[in-house]
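Internal QA ticket QA-208
Title: Verify multi-chain structure generation after dependency bump
Assignee: T.L.

Test input:
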Amino acid sequence: VKDRLTAALRTSRADYTEIRVEHSWSSSVAFRGQRLESATASEDRGGFVRVLNRGYGWGVASFTSLDRLPAMLARAHELSRAVKLDTPIRLAETTPVTADVTLDLDGDVRGIALAEKKRLLEGYNAEMLAVPGVVDTQASYRDWVTETWYANSEGTVLHQVWPDLTISGTAIARRDGTIEKGLESIGRHKGWHSVQSHAAGFRTVAERAAALLDAPTVKGGSYPVVLDNELAGVFIHEAFGHLSEADFVYENPQAREMMTLGRRFGRPVLNVGDNGAAPGLRGTLPYDDEGTPTQDTPLIRDGVLVGRLHSRETAAALGERPTGNARALSFRHAPIVRMTNTYIANGTGSFEDLIGDIKLGVYACSAFGGQTVLENFSFTAAYGHMIRDGKVAELVKDVVLAGSLFQTLDRIERLAGDFRWNQMGGGCGKGGQFPLPVTEGAPHVRIEQALVGGDVPA
Amino acid sequence: VIERLIEAVRRRADAGDALWHRAERTSIAFESGRVKACGVSEETGVNLRVRRGGRAGIAGTTAGDVEDLVTRALASAELGETVPLEFPPPASAPSVLTHAAAAADASLERLREIGTELVSRTSRDGCQVNVSIEREVGRTAVANTAGAAAAYDSTAVAVSVDLARFAGDDVLFVSDHYSGTDLPTTADLDALVESIALRFVPALTIVAPPDGALPVVFSPSGLSAILLPLEQALSGKGVLQGVSPLGAKLGEKVLDERFSITDDPLLPGRPGSRPVDDEGTPSRRLPLIERGVVRAFVYDLETAARAGTRSTGHGSRGTFGKPHIGYSNWVVGDPPPAGSATRGPLGGGLLGQIADGLLIEDLIGVGQGNVIGGAFSHPVALAYRVQGGAITGRVKDAAVAGNVYELLTRIGGFGSDGRWLGSGWAASLLLDGVAVARR
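Actual output:
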């Protein structure tokens, strides 16, 4: 394949050309209740070409038949030449690299029979179904091994192979008209061996779904709020991370002003970054989809905005350095600026210290979902507890956090010293590219005041 | 390919069906008013289902080896549970317009002109305009071992306009889009431009939100939070699994008697239309809720087989994964008049009767939480305060909540602004007693 790519590159008439060829093997198993919904193995293969000519736009082509590579290269060149630009697109300089990287496949999933995968998931599903009060479940297993070849006209030639594996389960508890759910999600940038001992997690979420049937709805209002590691991670990814992607600001003077480096975003306790080179996480790869090495990029240091995430194009436009964040979901897509493994850095002290002086507050845990529309966000916690007199008290449900990003970041007042990466399934969506594997990490985070919706007055 | 595949299935399995799909997409993106990228994509894929020993199995590929695909589908079937799956016999499919030659033949230059026109007509000082244009030319073939076979050509054109304005920490985001099998007409483009202006101008004034149980108008784009629970509840899968609140209410009046929903795959010129579904079942118009009465649920082959009923022609499948239930065109209220493109005024004439309330264009977090139960609670993304029958400005820090099944029993009124949004057609809806909270 490498030879085919380099031969094709030599035929390209464009000023800059890159080719990516991808081959992936995946299998998936799904249960609904007791019943197996499906167990399938798939194979996907295709190529992607992107070219740029000085003073012209990008020409982009993707295809499933590799025989079409020469024709698609020519077509991409034509598409580029069809668009003349007043302000030329420039690419920040990077050093050409040649690398051949196979991440630890940790029990290559391609060598495991589909029946074994079914058996594993069936066991986790049974853990949830065994819990009294649980009336229905959904469970899914999905694995991939992806092999990509990348070459560009500047001399970079890469071959990367990596695994990805996710298992998720939803337990649905029901009594009369009340329905509650619990969600377990495991995601690993590894193989078969990494997912063999997770039964307890599935049981716990099912038990919680049943317990939520009897839990009161949180009383809506403004409270001191403590986010658990998982929700804090989702929050920093959704509410802040997307604004730090440079394609959001690089052509928009007003957005640029909002995201001016040096602007204070929070108190000195707050440190945020994105690390595509962190070992073993789902957003980790040695090189991004433009061949730029990944790195740990500080975004907020001591409360002050100090960086953002770049592709080669956005970095050149803003006169900054590429950060290795140009990622493509598959050969069907162009690389765009994406997060990798996004984190709130660790604080100090224990969780008990963090909540010790809260008289009445909300402990919001885990996430069912979150959405951000620019500076406004809404997050649905999977469950919560009231905090009373410095202690975690009763379970509450329907904990929805809503607010303005800027206000909320500024109200983060303390961080515990219990940082962890949340190795979950799912992924990030942007520009029609979903789900891209990412990881989030955070310690417990305390927000001075935040609006908690739940029991909205009717 | 599909004939060879069905032949191989006859040889190696008891029965089966397959979907073959080829698509060529052309796209142009205007970022901040200028074209920066043009793209094409070509994709061919096939999804196969086989039945052997009463068990069904699935496999998909873009790589194209027929025998390997059958082998993988049989391996999948070995693990499967038994399902009394029967494939539909040959039948004549209705004819429906799914392909527009003008769209298929349009040059890159023609597509770009549409974008250039929209950029120049929607640009405003201090705002960023993004326009994207996508044209897909597709061919779909579906066949099974019972002898049914159908194939059709399709085109789909999607044009979207986003306008963003940043003022300090306030971000205003207004967007709209066109979709159809054909290129947008002049009237379609006028409607798009007008729609952006109508939403943008009154949003420049920010006013305080009201508070309490109030009349709220949900525009066609704001309606998703209201319609999503019904989409889930009317799916045969939810009924089969016993989680649909409407499951036991077939034939009962559960909503306002002026409220109707129809799934209609036979509307000409809509990208959701199709002569047969992805499992080869001929398409037909299906009333789901008629004058407040639950009339039908939608099924694909497998769900129907398990529920002991017949497929309603709502099987949907991609190259990978198993066929699942999918709607075609989801029409709320009266069937749409052909060629109608008018959009204004905001609220479709429903605002006049409101002393104090909201007009909702977009909510945050729709689809999160326990959707099928009908309860919703969302902050607003784009909403306006309505006072004395007119819009007084945009509200920012507000949230709306309620229960769909309760609110839809007493609808305050239907707007005259019915329109397509993707594969859905709806007009604005006035709902009374929606909980509005400010923060």
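Spot checks passed. Chain B touches chain A through 77 residues (CB under 8 Å).
Status: verified.
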